[in-house]
Design goal:
5-stranded mixed sheet, about 350 residues, 6-stranded mixed sheet, binds magnesium ion, binds adenosine-5'-diphosphate, 17 strands
C-alpha cells in the first residue's frame, strides 16, 4: 500500500445499505449493523412534506387520518416515488453516520428488477446524503456474499431471497449472476392471502399487519409436527363491530398455497434454465434461502420436496443482504475480480 492509499483507507467509512421493500438495514465497517427500520415514510397529503421515516412512520401505517399517508415507496420492488425514496435514504444514511469528516463510501443493495433510471436515482440520493463514492449491488449477489457463498469461484451457487415485496432467485458463478428471476410475490402476498382467507371464512376483516402477525406466529409451508392456533381480530363485515376468530396453522397453510406456488415456480424455472455444469454444482451444494420469508416454517422442506435439491436457510436470513453490502469492499480488496459486482454510475 502506498502512503496515500493507507491514508485514504484510514479516513474511509464504508457503509452498506440493504434498501429492502419491507426493511432497511445499514452496516458500518467496524461497527456492524447500526440501523434496522421499516422502509416506510409518512407524508402530509396536502404539502407532500415527509413527516416521519422508519419506525415512527411504520406505527402510522393503516392508522392515519385522511391528511397523512404512510407509504412504502419500494413496496413492489420498484421505486414508486423518487422523492420519498430519496428522503428515506438520506434519513437512514445521516442517522447511521458518526464520522462527519470521513470519506464516505456507500454500497446500496437494490432489487435486481430495478431499471437503470431507478439505479441512478438511488446513487444520486446517496450522494445528496453525503456519500463521496456510491455504488449499487444487486440484492441476490449481496445476499449470497452475506450468506458466505463462494460467489467468485467457478462453481454454481443458488440463492433465493424472499422479502416483503419481491422474491429474487439467482444462480451465481465467477462473480456474476448467470440465471435469475425476480417476481413480485413474497411476504406481502402471503399476508394478503391470509386477509382474504379470514374475510371469506369468518366474514372478518383484518388488517395486513394483523395477518403478518398470524403468519409469523403460526404460518407454515409444510405440515407441522404439532399444528398451532392463533386468535385474529378485526371488524365483523356483517355487524361492523370488533370481532375475534381462531385460525389454525392447517387452514393458513391452505390459504397461502397460491403465493407459495408462485415462489416455487420461480425457483424451478431458474433451475430448468441453468447451464448443466451449474446444475450439477447446485445438486451437490444445495439452495440457500435468505430474506424474512425464509423464516416461514417448513419453506425449506417444501422447496426441497419439489426440486429434489438440498435446501438450507441462511444463518440470520434477515441480515444477509446488509452483511453482504457491508463486506463487499473488504472482499474486493482480497479478490479484485469481485469488483464487477458493483455497478458504478459516473457523476453527472
Ligand atoms: P425486504 O428485503 O423486501 O425488505 P425482508 O427480507 O426484510 O424484506 O423480509 C420481510 C418479510 O419477511 C415480511 O413479509 C415479513 O412478514 C417476513 N417475515 C419476517 N419474519 C418472518 C417469519 N418469522 N416467518 C415468516 N415470514 C417472516
Ligand atoms: Mg431484501
Amino acid at each position: 500500500m502506498s502512503v496515500v492509499q493507507r491514508l485514504l483507507a484510514h479516513v474511509t467509512e464504508d457503509m452498506g445499505i440493504d434498501l429492502g421493500t419491507a426493511n432497511t438495514l445499514v452496516h458500518v465497517q467496524g461497527r456492524g449493523i447500526v440501523l434496522r427500520e421499516p422502509s416506510v415514510v409518512a407524508v402530509d397529503n396536502q404539502s407532500g412534506a415527509v413527516l416521519a421515516v422508519g419506525e415512527e412512520a411504520q406505527r402510522m401505517l393503516g392508522r392515519t387520518p385522511s391528511s397523512i399517508s404512510a407509504i412504502r415507496p419500494l413496496k413492489d420492488g420498484v421505486i414508486a416515488d423518487y422523492d420519498q425514496t430519496e428522503k428515506m435514504l438520506q434519513y437512514f444514511i445521516q442517522k447511521s453516520s458518526q464520522r462527519r469528516f470521513a470519506w464516505h463510501r456507500v454500497v446500496v443493495g437494490i432489487p435486481s428488477g430495478v431499471t437503470e433510471v431507478e439505479r441512478m436515482a438511488v446513487i444520486e440520493a446517496a450522494r445528496k446524503a453525503g456519500a463521496n463514492e456510491a455504488y449499487v449491488i444487486e440484492e441476490p449477489m449481496a445476499a449470497a456474499i452475506g450468506a458466505g457463498l463462494p460467489v467468485a469461484e467457478p462453481t454454481g451457487s443458488m440463492i433465493v431471497d424472499i422479502g416483503g415485496g419481491t422474491t429474487e432467485v439467482a444462480i451465481i458463478s465467477l462473480a456474476g449472476i448467470v440465471e435469475s428471476r425476480s417476481i413480485r410475490t413474497a411476504g406481502d402476498e402471503i399476508d394478503e392471502a391470509i386477509v382474504n382467507y379470514v374475510r371469506k371464512a369468518f366474514n372478518l376483516y383484518i388488517g395486513e399487519r394483523s395477518a403478518e402477525k398470524a403468519k409469523i406466529s403460526i404460518g407454515s409451508a409444510f405440515p407441522l409436527e404439532e399444528e398451532l392456533e392463533y386468535e385474529v381480530r378485526g371488524r365483523d363485515l356483517l355487524t361492523g363491530l370488533p370481532k375475534a376468530a381462531i385460525v389454525t396453522s392447517e387452514d393458513l397453510r391452505l390459504a397461502i398455497q397460491e403465493p407459495l406456488n408462485e415462489i416455487l415456480r420461480a425457483v424451478i424455472e431458474t433451475l430448468e434454465t441453468a447451464p448443466p455444469e451449474l446444475s450439477a454444482d447446485i445438486i451437490h451444494r444445495g439452495i440457500v434461502l435468505a430474506g424474512g420469508g425464509a423464516l416461514l416454517r417448513g419453506l425449506d422442506r417444501l422447496i426441497q420436496q419439489h426440486t429434489q435439491v438440498p435446501v438450507t436457510v441462511a444463518h440470520d436470513p434477515l441480515t444477509c443482504v446488509v452483511v453482504g453490502t457491508g463486506r463487499v469492499m473488504e472482499e474486493i480488496r482480497q479478490n479484485p475480480q469481485l469488483r464487477k459486482v458493483l455497478v458504478e454510475v459516473p457523476k453527472a
